[in-house]
Amino acid sequence: MRLIFYSKLINMDMLEIQKIWSSVIDELKPQIPASSFEPWFLPLLPHSYEEEKFSVLTGQSFSIQILKKYNSLIEDALEKEIGKPTQFNIIYDEKLAQKQNKKLQKLLAKEENTEKLLKDPSTKYDNLKKMQSAPKLNLKYKFENFVVGDNNKFAYAASMSVAKTPGEKYNPLFIYGGAGLGKTHLMQAIGHYVLYKHPELKIKFVKTEEFVNDLISSIHKGMDKNSGMSAFRQKYRNIDVLLIDDIQFIEGKERTVTEIFNTFEALHNAGKQIVITSDREPKYIQNLPDRLRSRFEWGLMVDVQPPDLETRMAILCNLAKNDEISLPLDVIEFLAKRFSHNVRELEGAYNRVTAYVGVCNIELNVESVKQILKISETEKQITLDEILNTVASYYKLSPKDLKGQTRSQKLANARQIAIYICRELTNFSLNEIGDFFARRHPTIIYSYEKIKEDMQSNTSLQNSIKEITNKLKNE
Ligand code: ADP
Ligand code: MG
């Protein structure tokens, strides 16, 4: 049927073109992670089909580079639909860009954000004053600057929910996870949001060390009304939302524990919201008495995991967008691959690179980035063979079997892990990884997505991958 239809293609009308594109989109959807599919594929508009070339329009010049890596996948889907090898072509369209920008701006305008309110002269003076003096909340740490990925979507949703209805649903909210993964950011985002929505509420953000120091100095001051213990209690209990950062530093000292316990009880009983962050779950915090641990576990505990490659790339894109800097895709990919476990380090690298480029006015490309970050040319690039061998030896399998066609559960699983690591740690394209494992492109994507998903609920898998990665990096 396709062939008959094809004979008419010389002058294919727009309706047919749209039909083809919508089938192609249906075909591609299950093969591409939603985090890429939604922003990059859905906004494309079918444009024309001429001389075996199928063209679509984009309003985001950036998407041309992003979509390159999916080219063969798209062309396969086109061929399937049209029945003939077809070249895929993307055209940047200025008008569409303007239209989409307007749409975006409308959306942004709808999103209530603090800055807008601050600029709004009709905002009540009191609200303004409170927002501007919001103590120690970093203006950067808002929900709108937080990139959501599979690694943090539950923590994000829980934080959002707490921000919308403080003291009602999840109390306390306990956010835990490794360094530099956005815990403080989320916690402060709750603070900003509550301040904006309910300027009458009192918010306090405090680092655990600060709380402890404050407590010690208040104890020393004894009964002094303005700075002694009663002032301390007044300060921490006359609050609607208490944000305590890095509770792992509590160190179990009796007096501190008692004071935190009492503060917790006073606030919780009064229906006030408590949010706590920690680098580990309560049960792993040393010297934490049971009465406090069980209270930390009363509400909701959510973790944040290291972001996957796509989320890391999105974080960089977001930074670049805010700074109005255009970062080439290969630079984004290079940085995202190199700094994989800690967003703070990823941001640090981005800051060094952009600061340097700003001052020295040099061209931004992978080579210059390597120089700026002093990444030596001779630095070992991890090869696909090394990954294969390391994964094989970790699981006590033979590298040959790992690459072969055998489908035993153990082999298939280890193979998927190897593919995941290849994608995360090397700059090889999906096609190259596919060639290496003698597997098709969709299999590579499927394997990667599968491991990514499994990792979310499987801590032993997370640990294995961490161990293999460390081995590869340190060898
Ligand atoms: P943690 O408290 O978990 O150690 P932070 O909240 O201080 O980490 O985050 C470290 C840095 O990384 C901050 O600058 C933060 O804005 C940034 N960051 C972390 N996760 C994200 C994310 N998902 N989106 C945007 N920025 C992030
Ligand atoms: Mg922190």
What topology emerges from the helices and strands here?
Blueprint: H1 2-7, H2 14-28, H3 34-41, E1 45-50, E2 53-58, H4 61-68, H5 71-82, E3 87-92, H6 94-110, H7 114-119, H8 125-132, H9 153-164, E4 173-177, H10 183-197, E5 203-207, H11 208-220, H12 229-237, E6 241-245, H13 254-269, E7 273-278, H14 290-296, E8 300-304, H15 309-323, H16 329-338, H17 343-360, H18 366-372, H19 384-394, H20 399-403, H21 409-425, H22 430-436, H23 441-457, H24 459-474
Bound molecules: adenosine-5'-diphosphate and magnesium ion.
Give an overview of the whole structure.
The chain has 475 residues and is α/β, with parallel strands linked by helices. Helices cover 58% and strands 9% of the residues. The protein is built from 24 helices and eight strands. Strands 5-6-7-4-8 form a five-stranded parallel sheet, with helices on both faces. Helix 21 (409-425) crosses helix 23 (441-457) and helix 23 packs across helix 24 (459-474). Magnesium ion binds next to helix 10.
Outline:
The chain has helices at residues 2-7, 14-28, 34-41, 61-68, 71-82, 94-110, 114-119, 125-132, 153-164, 183-197, 208-220, 229-237, 254-269, 290-296, 309-323, 329-338, 343-360, 366-372, 384-394, 399-403, 409-425, 430-436, 441-457, 459-474, and strands at 45-50, 53-58, 87-92, 173-177, 203-207, 241-245, 273-278, 300-304. It has 475 residues and is α/β, with parallel strands linked by helices. The longest helix is centred in the last third of the chain and has 18 residues, at 343-360.
